[in-house]
Amino acid sequence: MEFVKCLGHPEEFYNLLRFRIGGRRKVMPKMDQDSLSSSLKTCYKYLNQTSRSFAAVIEALDGEMRNAVCIFYLVLRALDTLEDDMTISVEKKVPLLHNFHSFLYEPDWRFMESKEKDRQVLEDFPTYCHYVAGLVGIGLSRLFSASEFEDPLVGEDEERANSMGLFLQKTNIIRDYLEDQQEGREFWPQEVWGRYVKKLGDFAKPENIDLAVQCLNELITNALHHIPDVITYLSRLRNQSVFNFCAIPQVMAIATLAACYNNQQVFRGVVKIRKGQAVTLMMDATNMPAVKAIIYQYMEEIYHRIPDSDPSSSKTRQIISTIRTQNLPNCQLISRSHYSPIYLSFVMLLAALSWQYLSTLSQVTEDYVQTGER
């Protein structure tokens, strides 16, 4: 199936091949496992079990920053799992969260009281996103500055760091509507969907598909307001490994929102970007001009799909116009812009080998386009 998809996107096919035969290591160098202590090896084992996609970008960080972010991520995932467990009463959950730091020093501590998840409605969307994602962005930014990999301003500007986390979290929540419904979770903000239907689950009904798409477009428009902060934040980074770590998830999120915008499939199945698309983004998003070009590409894609009848159409056009003012280049990426006939011939020559390459692609590319972690 991926082979068929690539035939319509030869540049993605070319990048898939490059990624397989060594391009991945230019973006995500392989970590030396032999140099790790036994405890760190255990941490990285858990990291890969928890999220191979985040493990890939974390393992590509430089020096001691890599280990600090690995442990930081594992601790926050544990906290997030506890916070998201809707079967735990507030009376029991709050003390557990407040005392969680002390459990880190108790190797035998376990929480085994979770039951099947019950359906609950998220009442405070902005606050929830701040605590589960915004604070992650703030914490990571402070680590970047404290390590002197980045300037102090990166860690001091909490507003931009918060937006980095919020943009990723909102993208995941928007995309995962159907999966969350099927698993008894509701993360879409009631103050938005409540204007369209009585119950969030009603969006999955065929007779409500027009209302569902209107609500979807409103939420995507809201998420797009974080992109100016994302551009400002990324523009300040100077360490290459930190830049890659921050930029790759952001451009993946932008591409995902473009795929979801005005798309009824969000309420019927899985919306994800192509493997070749994901690999191309990973290999291109290594400098600020390239990231701006990616943003421009997907903003234009959304802009040209805005329905005039959509209630949020004027707001969507307005935020995209604002994003355009941030010196986005009106051009394609350099790596995509000057492919010669020789390149196209090369692609076609290797077409016969494509299935073998595609079937053995690294699992990391699959993780980037499957369901994102909370």
TrEMBL record:
Domain of life: Eukaryota
EC number: 2.5.1.21
GO cellular component term of the entry, any: endoplasmic reticulum membrane
Enzyme class at the top of the EC tree: transferase
Compartmental location: Endoplasmic reticulum membrane
One term of GO molecular function: squalene synthase [NAD(P)H] activity
Gene3D superfamilies on file: Farnesyl Diphosphate Synthase
Catalysed reactions, semicolon-separated: 2 (2E,6E)-farnesyl diphosphate + NADH + H(+) = squalene + 2 diphosphate + NAD(+); 2 (2E,6E)-farnesyl diphosphate + NADPH + H(+) = squalene + 2 diphosphate + NADP(+); presqualene diphosphate + NADH + H(+) = squalene + diphosphate + NAD(+); 2 (2E,6E)-farnesyl diphosphate = presqualene diphosphate + diphosphate
Membrane topology according to the record: Multi-pass membrane protein
Record's keyword terms, sorted: Cholesterol biosynthesis, Cholesterol metabolism, Endoplasmic reticulum, Lipid biosynthesis, Lipid metabolism, Magnesium, Membrane, Metal-binding, Multifunctional enzyme, NAD, NADP, Steroid biosynthesis, Steroid metabolism, Sterol biosynthesis, Sterol metabolism, Transferase, Transmembrane, Transmembrane helix
Transmembrane segments: none
Pathway(s) annotated for this protein in UniProt: Terpene metabolism; lanosterol biosynthesis; lanosterol from farnesyl diphosphate: step 1/3
SUPFAM superfamilies recorded: Terpenoid synthases (SSF48576)
GO biological process, one term: cholesterol biosynthetic process
Record-linked PROSITE patterns: SQUALEN_PHYTOEN_SYN_1, SQUALEN_PHYTOEN_SYN_2
Pfam families linked to this entry: SQS_PSY (PF00494)
Family: Belongs to the phytoene/squalene synthase family.
Biological role: Catalyzes the condensation of 2 farnesyl pyrophosphate (FPP) moieties to form squalene. Proceeds in two distinct steps. In the first half-reaction, two molecules of FPP react to form the stable presqualene diphosphate intermediate (PSQPP), with concomitant release of a proton and a molecule of inorganic diphosphate. In the second half-reaction, PSQPP undergoes heterolysis, isomerization, and reduction with NADPH or NADH to form squalene. It is the first committed enzyme of the sterol biosynthesis pathway.
Protein name: Squalene synthase
Source species of the chain: Prolemur simus
